[in-house]
Amino acid sequence: MNRPDNAAPIDQVFQVCAVVNDLRRAMEQYWTVLGIGPWRIYTFQPPALTDMRIGGEPKPFSMKIALTEIGQVQWELVEPLDGPSIYKDFLREKGEGVHHVQFVGGTFDGCMAAFGSQGIQTLMTGTFHGRTFAYLDTEPQLGVIAEVVRKPSDRPLPAPEEVWPAPMAPG
User: Mean pLDDT throughout 44-57?
Assistant: First the structure.
């Protein structure tokens, strides 16, 4: 079956993200209840985080994230830190829970154009170590926020600040 002409060129769900109040507590719960981990922890803040915008307006924000993989899908936990953010809005309005799904397909610009052609607005954007992310207001249509990312192939994420639980030393 052919896609509608203005549909975003999505091929894969890459990531599912939950927003949490306490990153450490959430990692421990996912580890204890589901055995999910280990988690790679990063702090997204200046100077590594740039071009921060909310609703198109420059607004600095920061967050601490934890990443792990479950099969072929990355799981992300986000704890908002300083400044306004759609994460803080979500926690205030809904409490902890699934916040967004990151989709992959086509190009970043192609995805953004396809969403824009459907009248879908951009909620929040930023760039972390050369990776530009955009959250799109797809909640009315999909029940969840969509995220698309431009990932330069020559710039992998740096080493995490911490891995939790810490790897066991060889014995």
Answer: 95
Nearest to 51 by CA among 155, 150, 133, 153: 133
Cβ neighbour number for residue 4 with a 10 Å cutoff = 8
Residue 168 and residue 150 in contact, taking contact as beta carbons nearer than 8 Å:
no
What pLDDT is attached to residue 1?
Answer: 62
> Would you say 48 and 159 are in contact if contact means Cβ atoms under 8 Å apart?
no
Total-model pTM: 0.93
Task: Give 148: exposed, middle or buried? Use CB within 10 Å, 0-12, 13-18, 19+.
Answer: buried
